[in-house]
Amino acid sequence: MTTVQQWEQIVLDEIDRTSEDLLALAGDLIRIPSENPPGDCTEVAGYVAGYLREAGLEVEVLDAGEGRLNVLSRIEQPTTAELAPDGRRHLVLAGHHDVVPVGDNSRWTFPPFAGDVVDGYLRGRGASDMKAGLAGTLFTAALLHRLRVPLAGTLSLASVADEETGGPLGAHWVLENGHLDGATGAVIAEPAERTHPTIGQKGSNWFRLTISGRPGHGSLQPLHGENANLLAAKAILALQGLWEMTPDAPPEVRELIESSKVFAEEREGYQAGISAVFEHVTVNIGTVHGGSSTNVVSDACVVEVDTRVPIGLTRAQVLAEVRRLLAEAGVQAEIEEIGFRSEPNWTLPDDPVVATLVDALGELSGDPETAGVLQWASSDARTFRSHGIPVLQYGPAELATIHGFDERAPVESVILAAKTYALTTLRYLGVRADDRSAV
Q1: Residues of the chain scoring pLDDT < 50
Q2: Hey, is 176 helix, strand or coil?
Q3: Partners of 80 in the beta sheet?
Q4: Which of 91, 29, 102, 41 is nearest to 70 (CA)?
């Protein structure tokens, strides 16, 4: 009979032995363009499905439309008399297979879809966000199946589309249609600092302001006509007041906020004072489009704004303050909610899926300060939490290269992440007593 501890060592040793296969899988994924926009993931989803089928797993390819294909697979053990189905844990290993656009190819120092390993780094668009992490989840599931590890619960794989633009045809579509019902915990292979998974995030609140003016001859401004661009400038300045809103975080999250502030300044590499983002509404004026000609008083201006909502405030409160600030500035605007929209969300550090992964990562990395932290960005984690599924994020990355030129991820972190997914799966789901030896 193989004990739990023996299974853990068998699996970890096998990841070491086959690590080149893991890197090859990640490289293959990177070499398949899946930029979003435009967001068509047909080819990469087909590759993921083919990899899992070749590993002997059953696969569902779910077409949500517009080229947004989502791939699901499940390893489910037979029910035993000692363990009723409704008492079993169900873990989801998840990731997205779309990536942000490459941008200006000339500003990369290597081919954007290289998918190669050079000087200890896996290189190419998606290396950090998040095809290396996705490869780790796929590789882990295939390995556990090949070794016939008798998991005591259910393991699901979800490789989804439409994450990078916050679209509705990826994780949201999969969860809304009940394809992951019954899940008790999830790990998303999003990029994270090496020993600090993310267990919560600020809310996301994007909106568009459409401001109307009265056109006229430009030579008569400001005496004739009403310039929408000038009104937009007043609106932009007024919206900076959102930073002054004061959140009231629940008591159970305040310690996590404080530790995340320390982490942001000591480990993330940003400038001193960056930790203030956890307790304020941030305001980014993303785009401004107004006017028709230099010599015409602008009759319309459209401003798109990205605000992030700290724990202790809601999107409704922020939007109410937007309206108040605009009214105070004397600006009338049509407000349309767009893009990423979510409330602040988190999973507490003592949740079983969080505690299991953090403990496993601490052992594997040898870092006693391993802990979950908050992030200021948004991801599919918000969707899992909105469906009542505790979730955290951990994946290999060189964080400074995410969404930038020359994206890459350390090979050592790619292997560490795969081991973390494997050990988390074994410990979270448990292993049934089984007379078979490992194959």
Answers
A1: 80-85, 435, 437-439
A2: helix
A3: 83
A4: 41
The span from the CA of 127 to the CA of 213, in Å, is 46
DSSP 18: T
- The pair of structure tokens assigned to 263 is 């982490």
The overall pTM is greater than 0.90: yes
**Per-residue model confidence as pLDDT tens digits over 278-337:** 999 999 999 999 999 999 999 999 999 999 999 999 999 999 999 999 999 999 999 999
DSSP-assigned states of every residue in 121-174: EEESTTIIIIIHHHHHHHHHHHHHHHTT--BSSEEEEEEES-TTTT-SSSHHHH
Q: Tokens at residue 294, please? A: 């230099």
User: Token pair 């922020």 is at which residue?
Assistant: 318
Backbone angles phi, psi at 318, to 5 degrees: -65, -45
Question: Quick one: pLDDT at residue 82?
Answer: 43
If you write DSSP's letter for every residue of 20-87 in order, what string do you get?
HHHHHHHHHHHTS--BTTT---HHHHHHHHHHHHHTT--EEEEE-STT-EEEEEEEEPPPBTTB-GGG
Contact (Cβ atoms closer than 8 angstroms) between residue 33 and residue 114 = no
pLDDT at 439: 47
Contact 275, 307 (CB under 8 A): no
Residues linked to residue 206 through DSSP beta bridges, in sequence order: 306, 338
Peptide bond preceding 38 in cis form (omega within 30 of 0): yes
Separation in Å, CA 265 to CA 275, 280, 413: 6, 16, 22
160 touches 32 (CB < 8 A): no
In the prediction, which pLDDT does 340 show? 85
> What pLDDT is stored for residue 389 in this prediction?
98
Check whether the bond before 130 is cis (ω within 30° of 0): yes
Residues 161, 39 contacting (CB under 8 angstroms): yes
Q: Cβ-count burial of 302 within 10 angstroms (0-12 exposed, 13-18 middle, 19+ buried)?
A: middle
pLDDT score at 434: 62
DSSP for 245-311, written as a single string: ------HHHHHHHHHHHHHHHHTS---TTGGGGGGS-EEEEEEEEE-S-TTB--SEEEEEEEEEE-B
Structure-derived torsion over alpha carbons of residues 410, 415, 420, 425, reported in degrees to the nearest 10: 140
Cis peptide before 222 (omega within 30 of 0): yes
Determine phi and psi for 343, rounding to 5 degrees: -80, 160
Question: Which domains does the chain possess?
Answer: 4-201+344-429 (3.40.630.10), 203-245+280-342 (3.30.70.360)
